[in-house]
Amino acid sequence: MNENTKDMVTEHQINDYVIYRKNGICKIVDIRTENFGDMGPNLYYVMQTVYDENSIIYVPVTSKDLEQNMRRLLTVEEIHDIIDEFVESDKCWIDDSKTRVASFTKTLNQGDRAEILWIVKALTTHKSDLETQKKKLSVSDTKILTAAQKLINEEFSFVLGIPQEEVISYIKKRIDKILKGDTPQYVERDRA
User: Fold this and answer.
1) I need a surface site. Which of 24, 29, 62, 151 has the fewest CB within 10 A?
2) How far apart are CA 63 and CA 141, in angstroms?
3) Domains and CATH numbers, the chain
4) Alpha-carbon 24 to chain mean position
5) Distance CA 21, CA 110 (A)
6) What are the tens digits of pLDDT across the range 33-69?
């Protein structure tokens, strides 16, 4: 943090990891005053996406929709709670595609990871059902499924310290243990 900002209190701090909109996981590398064009000097979070270190994002600290667009990462315990509660989820499929797309898009934008995990399950099941009928998932459902999988895979992978391609398997194994009445355990992996 530079001299101009050292006394200002911000919700997030340098070296915090957050999820920013559809950019995915970002590390806050600085909080500093910048003067971009006609906007005058403003305090910004300077963030670097963890999966593309060349991507730098500047977000005004005082942005009115900051809370909606920038969220803290889940903890390991919160991920486990989401998976554990997911087993008992009783959400209903939305048959009307326009209503479904609007609802799922709103959910993605709100960032509730439990709801997003349900979207992944619902659309994956729907895709499998369609394939048995030699049909394909609609373009809009495919886009939503891809975005939902990206959000879940990136965050769960990063927090749990497992490769992204192992996330779905990890979730399935945890659910299987719960359904068998076992208490799933988590063994933290080294990030090295």
Assistant:
1) 62
2) 31
3) 3-71 (2.40.10.170), 74-179 (1.20.58)
4) 6
5) 9
6) 999 888 789 999 999 999 888 899 999 998 888 877 8
Q: Hey, how many other C-beta atoms are within 10 angstroms of the C-beta on 180?
A: 8
Buried residues in 105-121 as b, exposed as e (16+ CB within 10 A): eebbeebebbbbbbbbb
pTM for the full model? 0.83
Phi and psi at residue 98, to the nearest 5°: -65, -45
DSSP 3-state assignment of 88?
coil
Can you tell me the distance from the alpha carbon of 94 to that of 107, in angstroms, rounded to the nearest whole number? 13
Strand ranges in the chain using DSSP code E only, listed in sequence order? 17-20, 24-35, 41-49, 52-60, 70-72
Environment class of 26 (CB within 10 Å of its CB; exposed 0-12, middle 13-18, buried 19+): buried
Rg (CA), the chain: 19
Residue 1, Cβ density class (10 Å: 0-12 exposed, 13-18 middle, ≥19 buried): middle
